[in-house]
Amino acid sequence: MAKVSIGLRGWRFEESELFDEAGEFRPLDTMSDSARTRLVRLTYLQAKPCDGCYLIHGEANKKRCKQAQIVYGEPMEEVLLCETHESDFLYWFREAGGNQFIETEAFRRSFVEWFDAGNRAPDGYEGLTHVDVDPHALPDPPDPAELQKRLNDGYTDRRKRINLRTGEITYERTDQAHAEQNRIQQLDLSREYPTNK
């Protein structure tokens, strides 16, 4: 089965894990925790600037930053890059010891510190050759409202909420469940009620 990137290049998903036979996104509950977390996280990351550009231009000149096209690392420790700065990241990872931080909480911070200190890939450093059949046709993750709707299809007593920053799913009681809980709490359990004898 083919692997696909969604929204940004870098994170790869098994196509069959995300899409049904009709090409629609599967319900979030049917995906593995890893795939669901990455997919939800992508909805938050998709419009973010390249980390390299942001370190160069800063918040004051954020408009000069290129939008990220590539993501490396684990959710919450990812590095976002444009095509220009991907070679800097690859050099850090391959040649400057960045690979020792794989799957650690220091992954992103270590790259940022290295880059912020003025380090870059040497001129002509070979990055990755991406083979894109249609580079502008990466499917987009569902928007946040659609993700929330899909997550709650079929749930009546409690709703699920997605934290788009972390990918964490929590539960929230609906009004009907709140009303039922309030009725139970108002019962006077010390009172003697009539019984059918």
What does this structure look like?
The chain has 197 residues and is of the alpha+beta class. The chain has seven helices and six strands; from the N terminus they run ββαααββαααββα. The protein has helices at residues 15-18, 33-45, 51-57, 83-95, 107-116, 144-152, 175-186; strands at residues 3-4, 13-14, 70-72, 79-81, 158-162, 169-173. A hairpin with a 6-residue loop joins strand 5 and strand 6. The model has no long low-confidence stretch (mean pLDDT 81).
Q: How would you briefly describe this protein structure?
A:
The protein is α+β, with helices and mostly antiparallel strands. It has a domain at 47-123. 35% of the residues lie in helices and 10% in strands.
The coarse overall form would be elongated
Distance between the termini: 67 Å
The assigned structural class equals alpha+beta
Q: Determine the mean pLDDT.
A: 81
Order of secondary-structure elements? EEHHHEEHHHEEH
Total count of helical runs of at least 4 residues: 7
Biggest β-sheet: strands ordered side by side in the sheet: 1-2
Q: What's the count of strands?
A: 6
What fraction of the residues are assigned to beta strands by DSSP?
Answer: 5-15%
Nearest-angstrom radius of gyration?
A: 23 Å
Major pleated sheet: 2 strands, antiparallel
Architecture blueprint of SSEs:
Layout: E1 3-4, E2 13-14, H1 15-18, H2 33-45, H3 51-57, E3 70-72, E4 79-81, H4 83-95, H5 107-116, H6 144-152, E5 158-162, E6 169-173, H7 175-186
Antiparallel strand pairs: 1-2, 3-4, 5-6
